[in-house]
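sorry to bug you again but im stuck and you know this stuff better than me. what follows is a protein written twice so to speak, once as letters and once as structure tokens for the fold. id like you to explain what the token line says about the fold, in plain words if possible. anything you notice is useful, everything is just below.
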Amino acid sequence: MSYYAVKGDALVLELHVQPGASRTEIAGLHGGRLKIRLAAPASDGRANAALIEFLSSEFKIPKRNVSIEAGLASRRKRVAIEGVTGEMPWKMPIS
């Protein structure tokens, strides 16, 4: 199982998000999902906003192109990113 899929014109990522980390970064794979550490706390939607900001920055696309499809209140999230062309901005295994 892969942590990403292409559905229509969107890249869909399966994520494991760790809020409250010392810094925001890609941390590898965790249970078949891409693990992202976020410096923002998991309160008042700050971690979700930080996740959208981080992914839009990594993919160099507007924040409006990033949406959380599932897992708003969970560490396990599904995120859709529209308008992505080319390769992943980070080097991660495909499987």
User: Anything to note?
Assistant: Strands lie at 4-7, 10-18, 25-30, 33-37, 66-70, 76-82.
